[in-house]
């Protein structure tokens, strides 16, 4: 008779004998080598121990009999609920005596159907069988657990800022993936920054030429036309600097950063300008159109894996 | 092929190997058993791990990091100089250092290990530990729970049978396990814990209180002073007794501060109270009366705290025992487990059964309340592992075409308060609600790693959980990149390490001293550098010994 057959014992109250038998069998069914057989053995062992110490045990409803109608008042042994769903005997032997998951239910409505072959001999259980009562009962067994004490619940994830405080050393700790949560600057802002920069460069060039003309007395071609072409040079100079932005971007409060929201390295900055020149050269006629539909992640931003964000969005 | 046992701790790590004569703990390159879990990167991008790195925590705090185990399983990056590392990578550096020490000690390559983790480590954190080992070139034979490891060490060392309550209070985590040892069976009845409660929290609280009393914030004082304050508080915590007066430099002010036991108890009571919850939960879950516990065993450095001992003593009405060194007992247990995994004959008759310390479940609509997802536990906490459980879930709306199975860990009925581990989505044929079903199988193995697979009942389509962006988890490409990045970092040459440590120690002493004492340390340093420059091995050795002796004498404050 189960669980004694599993342990190779006659029904007994001798705890010592049960433990001995379990220990002997366990050495042949090591948990890591025979997980399913071990689960069965362990279940039988717990069951045997429980019946050997009747004072600790709830009267287990016999299989097939209507169980007491009141919901479980005191939690049974905590793993009891989970043990119910452990593999049954795959040879079709008598299931464990407490295989009734919903003691509050009349037998006829039980969602557990032992006779139906479970999928590939795995335990079978359904939980949302359009039977609200059964679900409520599931809830009840849950509620008999001690209520979680929210302020000291160890399972509660600790918010990021709190973790920072725990750490000692290191220059700074940043929480990636930051860029995913950080909105990039809009295309309009970028275009405005570009326009401002180009005007600024044009003005600078014009003033330079004016001074040059005043000194040498010779007038050449108007240099300010070259402003757009000079832009990449200026960008390289300014974006690689502490500003992390061209003057136009700086004015609008924008900054160029990498994935970790850190300043670009010199090499990265060079790469960014290079991709800017290449994409601009290749798509010169349509460039404004293409970039306008990229939600602030312009072609050269994407290619060089850099981001332009507003300072207020930076940590 | 040798398997070593590793205790990867928040503050200190240690490793050992199982030999014919039992456990042999492996000393590191400095001849010490405990290697501080501190990583430092010097300006040549050379790595320092252990005591040498720890010495640099003060003077080079921007390139040194400690207590990173607390970030395991998260995505946070710590910058050492210009290089960013996540906790997995930092842990792998410590593991690599331990591995190299073990290889040097054993004289043969070490390819696999049993690593201990806090019992209450979540699935994410365990995966991260696994990946750290992988990055360090170690195959993880088994992840063992720290209290279980401690119990093995006690059970096998003392050959004592009975029921034990293990309290593992380390630098960053607190774990409680109730175990029974009989006839060669080590059975864990229940485990609980707090992943963010440890010795470092006490120091944090002390530092915060000192700063608050002086009307300062952490940002207001220079990092150097802050690190110094941490070390002084750490030292004060260790020497907690009738009262000690410390001179603290806090930026521009210098204050005298008296550390008394009463002050400590006053500010640390909330933390101590937090430690009570897991103890109570373990006892409640195991349904074992307090009277039948044969022994309460203390593990981990923080259990040395007198107030903690007093609290445990009061709770159980007896003196807890700790006759094995609480700092190394976990490493010993992990080593024994390594021996078990290799099936050493001496250990053949021991079997260990462990439990899953937390509930694992999914989210489901609980009819008739279909407007809110509620928690649906699948593997209940403290059931014996390995375990595999299937539950069937049905579609919740008409013509539903996709079923998403979210995997959660935790005890709260509110899914948002539980830890989200991942999600599997499977396509199901359309139909009226409640007709199509999926079988959700949760398998929890002895390493504490969860596998979830979902099978659509009608089509037989099967999908296993691939956690898309679990915090701290690395994809294959990222793993390659991390490996390449870490491979580029070289440890200091073995012989150089000790010298650097001495220099760092002397530099620290130089900074903290004044007048002739400072002058003397300066001279010591000059002399040592001179010996190093001459590069004559015997002279260097002589200088080392001399330097060590002098520094030991000078360091009356035992901060380390």
TrEMBL record, chain A:
- Which Gene Ontology CC terms are recorded? plasma membrane
Annotated TM spans: 191-215, 221-240, 273-294
Sorted alphabetically, the keyword list is:
Cell membrane, Chaperone, Membrane, Transmembrane, Transmembrane helix
- Annotated membrane topology: Multi-pass membrane protein
Q: Per the annotation, which location comes first and is thus the protein's main one?
A: membrane
Q: Region (Disordered) spans which residues?
A: 27-134, 139-158
Q: Which InterPro entries match?
A: DnaJ_domain, J_dom_sf, Pra-immunoreactive, RDD
Q: Where are stretches of biased composition, namely Pro residues? A: 94-104
Looking at the record, the residues that make up the RDD domain are 185-304
Q: Where in the cell is it found?
A: Cell membrane
Compositionally biased tracts (Basic and acidic residues): 29-39
Q: What is this protein called?
A: RDD domain-containing protein
UniProtKB/TrEMBL annotation, chain B:
Q: Name one GO molecular function term.
A: ATP binding
Pfam families the record matches? HSP70
Organism this protein belongs to: Marinobacter nauticus (Marinobacter hydrocarbonoclasticus)
The protein in question is named Chaperone protein HscC
PROSITE patterns, per this entry?
HSP70_1, HSP70_2
Annotated membrane-spanning segments are none
Keywords attached to this Swiss-Prot or TrEMBL record, sorted alphabetically, are: ATP-binding, Nucleotide-binding
SUPFAM superfamilies attached to this UniProt entry: Actin-like ATPase domain, Heat shock protein 70kD (HSP70), peptide-binding domain
Task: Tell me where on the tree of life, at the top rank, the source sits.
Answer: Bacteria
Q: Which InterPro entries match?
A: ATPase_NBD (IPR043129), Heat_shock_70_CS (IPR018181), HSP70_peptide-bd_sf (IPR029047), Hsp_70_fam (IPR013126)
Q: Where is the signal peptide?
A: none
Family as reported in the entry's similarity comment: Belongs to the heat shock protein 70 family.
What taxonomic lineage is listed for the species of origin?
A: Bacteria, Pseudomonadati, Pseudomonadota, Gammaproteobacteria, Pseudomonadales
